[in-house]
Amino acid sequence: MPIRSAAHSGLDDTRLSLRPGDALVVVDVQRDFLPGGALGVPDGDRVVPALNRCIALFGRLKLPVVFTRDWHPADHCSFRAQGGPWPPHCVAGSDGAAFAAGLTVPDDASIVSKATTAQADAYSGFQRTGLGELLRGLGCKRLFIGGLATDYCVLATVRDAIGEGFAAVVLRDAIRAVNVHPGDGERAERDMAEAGAELVGTDLLAGDAA
Ligand SMILES: [Zn+2]
């Protein structure tokens, strides 16, 4: 599996230079998905510092940053009261649906809301959101993807990104898994690599190239 990290290699030539056509996609870093939230991901808050570093880097390079968010009606089909698998979470406009308190959301970032109707759920940020068109309109070709959770919305977003023709780079230290079944997160990482994604540590991202 092609996983690289400067911490492991110690080599400068493994660094990933960002370039025009790159974009950062931050998946569902919302309060309900953090520890203590309605659907808390273990260590979910740990993705925030790594993502903030990436957000700052992409901002400095004037590369697009897109945030996806779960944005459900109160009677959403994924909630247990409606026969779904999850407790109520990320109800549109609620505190739990807000982005993590420490997450940097730049004024010029794009925010994409998903699963906004009662009848349909969406793990992927590309599902009925127009995200693909948005990114193509911005000239994006390669997406750097991090957020929550590895084994659900990150996995689905990465698969769809590749399906829509984007190159996908998964920010391995900026994702965390739910692990409903032990090993789900590791399986998801393997699935993403097999689908063609590259998995890298955020320490490899470099903005010094032309
Ligand atoms: Zn949801």
UniProtKB/TrEMBL annotation:
It is an enzyme of class 3 (hydrolase). Signal peptide: none annotated. Coiled coil: none annotated. Pathway: Cofactor biosynthesis; nicotinate biosynthesis; nicotinate from nicotinamide: step 1/1. The keyword Hydrolase applies. It comes from Thauera sinica. The lineage of its organism: Bacteria, Pseudomonadati, Pseudomonadota, Betaproteobacteria, Rhodocyclales. Belongs to the isochorismatase family. Transmembrane segments: none annotated. It comes from the Bacteria. Keywords: Hydrolase, Metal-binding, Pyridine nucleotide biosynthesis. Its EC number is 3.5.1.19. Residues 23-201 form the Isochorismatase-like domain. InterPro entries: Isochorismatase-like_dom, Isochorismatase-like_sf, Isochorismatase_Nicotinamidase. This is nicotinamidase.
